[in-house]
Amino acid sequence: MFNLNEFKTRRHQLIKAMGDGIAIIPTSPELIRNRDSHYPYRFDSYFYYLTGFKEPEALLVLVAGEDSKSILFCRDKDIEREIWDGFRYGPDAAKHEFGFDQAYSFNALDELMPKLLANQPKLFYSLGADVAWDVRVTSWLNQVKAQARSGVSAPDGVIDVRKLVDEMRLYKSSYELDLMRQSANIASRAHARAMQYVRGGQMEYEVEAEFLHEFYRSGAQAPAYTSIVAGGANACTLHYNANNGVLKDGDLLLIDAGCELDGYASDITRTFPVNGKFSAAQRDVYDLVLAAQAAAIVQVTVRNHWNSPHEAALDVLVQGFIDMKLCQGSKDAVLESGAYRQFYMHRTGHWLGLDVHDAGEYKDKAGDWRKLEAGMTLTVEPGCYIRPADNVPEHFWNIGIRIEDDVLVTDGVCEVLTVDAPKSIADIEALMRG
Ligand code: GLY
Ligand code: MN
Ligand code: MN
Fold first, then answer.
1. Which of 10, 11, 181, 402 is catalytic?
2. Is the CB of 355 under 6 A from ligand 1?
């Protein structure tokens, strides 16, 4: 799958956007979980986007201008360490395999970086993202500044490199879309599998295990985020992830779970009855959320802006809340007062890509909602969460529903990447009947 040209092109694009100066982009550190056990390693998304390189202890330098070049710093080959921890490329092989102009040992950073920074007019760096790197970069800069009397100049201030890369990451290439479609397919299959598997009396974590099984057996490297497997009232806790409740016959089960494939996230929510049959009240709320989602998806076109799907979903939901006597008054009054937030308190989506809440601005430079453009990928995820309350008819209590799909903006009708995860009541009930 690795496509060398894709990553080289991105580096050239960034170098062009920089104009001149130098960029420093480190990958993520390894993190201790407890004592000497580590969390599974995950590279930094910006670093990975520009390199395709997955090892820890690595840093990318890009020099723009006349003598532009890309330089990787990475771990040395080390047979002793490789016996314990596994393969590492080392600078020579990494330079060749990943197409850098130069590559050096990670251990040479403190010696070489002050030299590379000398006389550069600008520094592009993600100041504030990692304090340890901030300290290190500052010390390199101070070494350059100390040479002022020898006529050496240091970059004048720091420009956030993420601003430039965010703009690139927002528009997915066909290489990225291929991965995103695969990631979406794997997660869609996992949701269908869960619908077939679930029975009353099971624990939420048993269903979570089905997801992990489907993700890993399909080649995904990890869940894209901690799965939410929320039975009954737990679905009304938006970020529920204890996943240790008993699934009860008659309850709904909300599952928000997606996987990460070669860095790319899928993000799907489906809600279905534990016993395979929606009750009348569950059906009413489900059909409302589904209608809101359909209205929102229609708005995902290049004629619209980022907020159009949210506005469309809200319009449908608020009318439904009034019809179901969850909200009182006219639609305009409920929208104006925000009374709907008792049942719908989040927005209808976010950009999706290497990060589940992906990089990219939602407003343009003038402060208006950004226009949707072909190649952008986003989620569409309206919901309705009804906690017990005096102003709520009792048959709706503890119903929590979200329906979330991953969508690609195209020049025509948008493409729903997660179309294989069953969604209509008829499809869900038919699948669960087996
Ligand atoms: N799973 C995270 C989200 O839906 O935003
Ligand atoms: Mn989402
Ligand atoms: Mn989600």
1. 402
2. no
Which residue has the least CA distance to atom 4 on ligand 1?
Answer: 267
- pLDDT of 319 higher than 90: yes
- Which tokens go with 402? 């979200």
Per-residue pLDDT of 375-416, as tens digits, reads 999 999 999 999 999 999 999 999 999 999 999 999 999 999
225 pocket-lining for ligand 1 (C-beta < 6 Å): yes
User: 118 is in which domain, residue-wise?
Assistant: 4-167
Task: Examine the domain organization and report whether 108 and 230 are in the same domain.
Answer: no
**Dist CA 69 CA 321 (whole Å):** 58
Atom of ligand 1 nearest to the CA of 356: 2
Q: Is 305 a catalytic residue?
A: no
**Residue 262 and residue 268: Cα distance in Å, rounded?**
18
Q: How far is CA 170 from CA 151, 161, 173, 234, 372, in A?
A: 41, 15, 10, 33, 10
Query: Is-catalytic flag, 357?
Result: yes
**Is 23 found in the same domain as 57?**
yes
- Residues β-bridged to residue 256: 228, 269
What CATH number should be reported for the domain holding residue 87? 3.40.350.10
Same domain, 158 and 293: no
Instruction: For residue 271, list its beta bridge partners.
Output: 254
Q: Percentage of the chain with pLDDT > 70?
A: 100
- CA of 101 from ligand 3 middle (Å) equals 40
Catalytic residue chosen out of the listed positions 42, 136, 305, 346: 346
Q: How many structural domains compose the chain?
A: 2
Quick one: 279 and 420 in the same domain? yes
Q: Is 390 considered catalytic here?
A: no
In the chain, count H helices and then E strands. Answer: 13, 19
Q: Report residue 64 as tokens.
A: 């723009």
169 catalytic residue (yes or no): no
Q: Where are the alpha helices (DSSP H) in 42-101?
A: 45-51, 79-85, 90-98
Task: Tell me which of 103, 138, 167 is where a domain ends.
Answer: 167
- Same domain? 222 vs 106: no
